[in-house]
Design brief:
This protein is α/β, with parallel strands linked by helices. The protein is built from 14 helices and 10 strands. It has a single domain, classed as 3-Layer(aba) Sandwich (Rossmann fold), CATH 3.40.50. Strand 5, helix 8 (about 200-210) and strand 6 (about 215-220) form a beta-alpha-beta unit.
Length: about 375
């Protein structure tokens, strides 16, 4: 894929480009494409990424609903409705929605704990998500688990495992099954930058690379692996450089630009379906909250840097400005979309809170096979 339809300029990447790589400045209107040992910076023209109005509004409804759901869940946690803790993906909504939106109904999604938007874009009902958080019978695990430790089988979404690195071997197994069955379907998975340090990540991606499996792996690099800074997490200048070691295509993109994420993921999934996978994508965002609701992140986060990202790279505000400047939608349509999202999230919360708690005597049902 040469991206002729969107690119403005293309030049070969130099080693010096990575010695002082600035995610905020260098990725604003560029993305990096890696094909084997050839690395190219592609300067793209944002107006050429304009979707049709129907798609534009659908994406907006999904990303606003994602944030509205997490805001309702945050409020519910503080009201005592959620046991344990809660993890949210504020700042990552564009990457989650923009990527999962590309999947076909029959294709598998293997998300992690900051991919609420992926669940929503794939069709997981909000009331089901909330019932799970509340430990209720109508959640996917029927009250046996909580937080984003959930999947949704009707939409081919696998459940999260706390050991984040394990998502890649799971996705690899699903992709292997699709290749074996000759379905021409792809699998999409997410992993954090911290998860790439695990042996599971290496084993999964190495096997997928050797077998040329139909898999797209997105590294959601939100610049903090809990409290661990990037320079303490890995020695390479960018995780996408690992793609050359595995001999697979790679993309380094600004994950706060939902339309770009959607564009790149459409390309990557189509490559995977054609047998050109796996494909690695490093999506750069900023975790706009603590690791969990208990985390006092101001103790270790560069707040000046975070505030810059929140001001300039909030994925929802950025997308809305893009739509308005392009003349695709009006401010009134944006306002209406937000109102509907908040209304739906509040209704989903009410429905979930009316769901019964599971009966203790039923908690071991359907766990083990006779």
């Amino acid at each position: 894929m040469d991206h002729q339809e969107i690119y403005k300029k293309k030049r070969s990447a130099r080693p010096s480009d990575f010695s002082d790589l600035d995610f905020f400045k260098d990725l604003e209107n560029h993305f990096l494409e890696i094909k084997e040992l050839e690395m190219s910076w592609i300067e793209f023209e944002t107006p050429k990424l304009i979707p049709n109005k129907e798609k534009a509004m659908r994406l907006h409804s999904l990303i606003t609903l994602t944030r509205a759901i997490e805001e309702e869940l945050d409020s519910a946690f503080r009201a005592g409705h959620i046991p344990g803790t809660a993890f949210f993906g504020r700042g990552n909504e564009g990457a989650s929605v923009g990527s999962a939106f590309c999947l076909q109904d029959e294709e598998w999604l293997v998300p992690m704990h900051r991919n609420c938007g992926s669940h929503i874009a794939k069709g997981h009902p909000p009331e089901s998500i909330m019932a799970h958080f509340f430990g209720r019978k109508d959640g996917p695990s029927e009250g046996r688990d909580g937080n984003f430790h959930m999947g949704y089988r009707p939409k081919n979404i696998t459940q999260l495992i706390s050991h984040i690195g394990t998502t890649v071997p799971i996705a690899t197994g699903l992709a292997w099954a699709e290749k074996y069955r000759k379905t021409n379907r792809a699998v999409l998975t997410h992993i954090g930058e911290g998860g790439t340090s695990s042996g599971d990540f290496h084993e999964g991606i190495n096997f997928a690379s050797v077998q040329k499996l139909p898999l797209v792996i997105i590294i959601d690099n939100n610049q903090y692996a809990y409290k661990t800074l990037l320079e303490k997490q890995y020695a390479c200048k960018s995780l996408i450089l690992k793609s050359t070691g595995y001999g697979i295509p790679g993309y380094l993109i600004d994950g706060t630009n939902m339309i770009l994420v959607n564009y790149i993921c459409e390309i990557a999934l189509e490559m995977a379906r054609k047998g050109e996978g796996p494909i690695l994508i490093e999506s750069i965002t900023m975790r706009a909250s603590g690791h969990s609701v208990y985390d006092k992140f101001s103790d270790y986060v560069d707040m000046e840097d975070m505030n810059l990202w929140l001001e300039k790279r909030d994925p929802i505000k950025r997308y809305e400005q893009f739509l308005i400047n392009s003349g695709i939608v009006t401010e009134k349509e944006i306002e209406d979309s937000h109102f509907k999202a908040k209304e739906k999230a509040a209704l989903s919360r009410d429905i979930a809170l009316k769901s019964p708690f599971p009966k203790p005597e039923e908690m071991e049902n359907e766990i083990f096979a006779d």
